[in-house]
Design a protein that fits this description.
The complex is a heterodimer of chains A (108) and B (112). Chain A contains no helices and 11 strands. By secondary structure, chain A is mainly beta. In chain A, the strands form 2 sheets. In chain A, strands 2, 4, 5, 9, 10 and 11 form a 6-stranded mixed beta sheet that branches. In chain A, strands 1-3-8-7-6 form a 5-stranded antiparallel beta sheet, with no helix packed on it. By secondary structure, chain B is mostly beta strands. Classes of the chains: A mainly beta (108), B mainly beta (112).
């Protein structure tokens, strides 16, 4: 079983739509979680950290569910520029594990 | 400007060549990393340096040899690579091991 699993997608949504991704992690001792975005042929960039109480940054909301061992990312009012691959990351004891990513395409 | 700079951006080499990838970070971070990213696969962690000491080597073949001369610079020396080593090689740094990582633009490597 993979340490961090994501639905690879692609998710194809119209502009203005709300879209949500989930990511499951296998290590219950994981302490910190992050979402990165990676544009085609570019490096991953930190999108947001995920806190136990959930956090929001503009149109983006991240949630953590420790009981079910998943984190989620919600994007409201999707923009064309949101098209990218979204990587989920779980950290435990000096070990940062990346998921393979979920691809999102926002269409006009 | 990402704060983490990698050179070269692209590299094409034959299997018998020797080349080096360079990474430099201007963020004052204490940890640096090399990752390999192949198409449709998760990032594969190759090496981790913390305060210039190698703290992790994830069963990487010896044809990849890292070097960290100081906390700002990281190299990946390549020798006798195989076609399956063609991938995007990403360098990253973080303030500490448990902090988010900042990535360089990557070196896209093609082995002929």
């Amino acid at each position: 079983r993979k340490e961090v699993e994501q639905d690879p997608g692609p998710f194809n949504v119209p502009e203005g739509a709300t879209v949500a991704f989930n990511c499951t992690y296998s290590n219950s001792a994981s302490q910190s979680f992050f979402w990165y975005r990676q544009d085609c042929r570019k490096e991953p960039k930190l999108l947001m950290s995920v806190y136990s109480s959930g956090n929001e940054d503009g149109r983006f909301t991240a949630q953590l569910n420790r009981a079910s061992q998943y984190i989620s990312l919600l994007i409201r009012d999707s923009k064309l520029s949101d098209s990218a691959t979204y990587l989920c990351v779980a950290y435990n004891n000096n070990d940062m594990r990346f998921g393979a990513g979920t691809r999102l395409t926002v269409k006009p | 400007e990402t704060g983490v700079t990698q050179t070269p951006r692209h590299l094409v080499m034959g299997m018998t060549n020797k080349k080096s990838l360079k990474c430099e970070q201007h963020l004052g971070h204490n940890a640096m990393y090399w990752y390999k990213q192949s198409a449709k696969k998760p990032l594969e962690l190759m090496f981790v340096y913390s305060l210039e000491e190698r703290v992790e080597n994830n069963s990487v073949p010896s044809r990849f040899s890292p070097e960290c001369p100081n906390s700002s610079h990281l190299f990946l020396h390549l020798h006798t690579l195989q076609p399956e080593d063609s991938a995007l090689y990403l360098c990253a740094s973080s303030l500490h091991r448990d902090q988010p990582q900042h990535f360089g633009d990557g070196t896209r490597l093609s082995i002929l």
